[in-house]
TrEMBL record:
Catalytic reaction annotation: alpha-D-glucosamine 6-phosphate + H2O = beta-D-fructose 6-phosphate + NH4(+)
GO cellular component terms given for this protein: cytoplasm
Any coiled-coil regions, as ranges: none
InterPro entries: Glc/Gal-6P_isomerase, Glucosamine6P_isomerase, Glucosamine6P_isomerase_CS, NagB/RpiA_transferase-like
Pathway annotation from the record: Amino-sugar metabolism; N-acetylneuraminate degradation; D-fructose 6-phosphate from N-acetylneuraminate: step 5/5
Keyword presence, NADP: no
Organism placement in taxonomy: Bacteria, Bacillati, Bacillota, Clostridia, Halanaerobiales
Domain of life, per lineage: Bacteria
Protein name as catalogued: Glucosamine-6-phosphate deaminase
Domain Glucosamine/galactosamine-6-phosphate isomerase: 28-224
Organism encoding this protein: Orenia metallireducens
Function according to Swiss-Prot or TrEMBL: Catalyzes the reversible isomerization-deamination of glucosamine 6-phosphate (GlcN6P) to form fructose 6-phosphate (Fru6P) and ammonium ion.
């Protein structure tokens, strides 16, 4: 694992965008695994700026998003679909057919999950997977458990995650209780992984990711087994390492 400790959220965002843009410049038809949450917002802002300055071209890039809530319309302000269009896709030249987000009518979800994994496989797997991290060490929506799922699957969100994500909704009751998430095998099968964390509330999770015991109870600790992980953290998130 390569760990970069940076001074601020701004520096984290610039560094993350430069890692993603290097990937795309070196391989214009890269397959990117994309994450949502507040942490990568600054990275997306920087990528949009690089695009506007003609320094990056997304026309051949294929993207697969990590996760999406179940039960929220794609147009809902807090859906990860809206997030991705508002933060990136509406501002750069991604081709619509290259964008993949795990959302489907609820009655077809099981079937959809299998198709999502097949589609990632057919695209040649993920070249660079961007990850945020939950305060409990979840990645995507792979929540701490005594076993983890390999493929894309339906998840019951942990109480801690519902609590943490309630800041985006009017009340905790409005937070969806389920989501679809890529499983550990698509994440761990990515050629490169870029994990971002900012703020003191992520310090414990980052400590457990880097120095903790490898356990499904901290899904991010499994990243210790991956050969090419870059972690970019600001000082606050690096407080316990
Ligand atoms: C969410 C997402 C994760 C994200 C995490 C942290 O629940 N499913 O993909 O990494 O929480 O989010 P934030 O960056 O807002 O702290």
């Amino acid at each position: 694992m390569r760990v970069h400790i940076v001074e601020s959220y701004e520096e984290l965002s610039t560094k993350a965008a430069s890692i993603v843009s290097s990937q795309v410049i070196l391989k214009p038809n890269s397959v990117l695994g994309l994450a949502t949450g507040s942490t990568p917002e600054g990275m997306y802002r920087n990528l949009v700026q690089l695009y506007k300055r003609d320094l990056i071209d997304f026309s051949e890039v294929i993207s697969f998003n990590l996760d999406e809530y179940i039960g929220l319309d794609a147009n809902h302000q807090q859906s990860y679909t809206s997030y991705m269009f508002n933060n990136l896709f509406n501002h750069v030249n991604f081709k619509e057919e290259h964008i993949n987000i795990p959302i489907e009518a609820e009655d077809k979800l099981q079937e959809f999950c299998l198709k999502y994994d097949k589609k990632i496989e057919r695209a040649g797997g993920i070249d660079l997977q961007v990850l945020g991290i939950g305060t409990n060490g979840h990645i995507g929506f792979n929540e701490p458990d005594n076993k983890l799922k390999t493929g894309t699957h339906i998840v019951d969100l942990a109480e801690e995650t519902i609590e943490a994500n309630s800041r985006f909704f009017n009340s905790k009751e409005e937070v969806p209780k389920q989501a679809v998430s890529m499983g550990m095998s698509s994440i761990m099968g990515s050629k490169k992984i870029l994990l971002l964390a900012s703020g003191e509330n992520k310090a414990e999770a980052i400590k457990n990711t880097i120095n903790g015991k490898i356990t499904t109870e901290v899904p991010s600790s499994l990243l210790q087994l991956h050969p090419d992980v870059t972690i970019v953290v600001d000082k606050a998130a690096a407080k316990l390492i």
